[in-house]
Design goal:
298 residues, mainly alpha, 12 helices, elongated
Length: 298
């Protein structure tokens, strides 16, 4: 028994890529057979529109079976990464527009695959060296971390889809899609394992601890914590001062209104007294006039 057979089919890149091709073909055929049982130009157009990503990935893996794909392997990987970059952006927009657990899981899976692809297929290329990807903090995640994360998210997504699916077509497509994701993750895992075994750009120093330490150093040098505290205190003092001045203004207005009311009452009393005095004088003058008239008559 050979060493490859002892390791199992899942450690053979040739077998894994063949299974991926078979699963993608099953996904495309099953989705269209559930939609329409007759083959036509409309059906072919529907295949291209609904499964364009699967078709592109299918072409990628078919090319790997020939010398052309092996010769231009790195260029094909760039195209594959670009495809998943577009898919990730699309899933982000879908999640924003139709927020649900399913869209969140789909976006998380695409982000994970994108980082996994970038930190695997760009190794041993000029891109890895020119962009200093060896210092990327995501190198802290091991090959096993990425692969097991893909398995967990894909199985969780399958469970969510099975719960929400009401027909057999949804069950079949969701199951095939989960198998594809696990096999695709295994393909990336095997190539990264090969790079590690060949020690190709395997001395990567970047990790999350360095990033955290750099951020902490920046915070310590700029004394940002003290500035934040001082800023909060200044804002609080300004607010307190504004509230105090507002209270004083309201109190002054209230006192002025009270004083105005008192003055108004005094003026009313004085006006009443003047009117009464005038009325008294008028009555007196009338009485005097009447007395004079009476004397004249006599």
């Amino acid at each position: 028994m050979s060493k490859e057979k002892k390791l199992g089919w899942y450690n053979s890149g040739n077998i894994v890529t063949s299974l991926i091709i078979a699963v993608i073909v099953c996904i495309i055929v099953s989705t269209q057979s559930f939609a329409n049982n007759e083959f036509s130009l409309v059906l072919f157009s529907s295949v291209i529109n609904r499964n364009s990503i699967y078709l592109l990935v299918l072409i990628y893996f078919i090319f790997l079976k020939f010398s052309f794909g092996k010769k231009y392997f790195n260029y094909m990987n760039v195209i594959l990464i670009f495809i998943y970059f577009i898919v990730t952006i699309t899933s982000l927009l879908t999640m924003i527009q139709f927020f649900s657990l399913n869209t969140v899981l789909n976006f998380s899976m695409n982000v994970l695959l994108l980082f996994y692809l970038v930190h695997t297929f760009f190794r041993d290329t000029r891109v890895w060296k020119e962009f200093h990807l060896n210092n990327s903090p995501f190198n802290e995640l091991t090959n096993e971390n990425y692969y097991y994360a893909i398995i967990v998210i894909s199985l969780f997504s399958l469970a969510v889809n099975l719960i929400s699916t009401v027909d057999i077509s949804g069950v079949v497509v969701s199951t095939l899609n989960t198998i594809f994701l696990i096999l695709f993750g295994r393909y990336i895992y095997l190539y990264r394992y090969y790079l590690d075994k060949q020690k190709l750009d395997s001395n990567n120093t970047g990790n999350f601890n360095d990033v955290r330490e750099k951020i902490q150093d920046i915070l310590d040098k700029t004394d940002i914590d003290d500035k934040i505290v001082d800023g909060v205190k200044n804002i609080q003092e300004m607010v307190d001062e504004a509230i105090h001045s507002k209270e004083e203004k309201d109190l002054d207005e209230l006192n002025e209104n009270q004083n105005l009311d008192v003055d108004t009452e005094k003026k009313k009393e004085e006006l009443k007294e003047e009117i009464n005095e005038k009325l008294d004088l008028t009555e007196k003058s009338k009485s005097v006039s009447k007395k004079k008239v009476k004397k004249g008559e006599k």
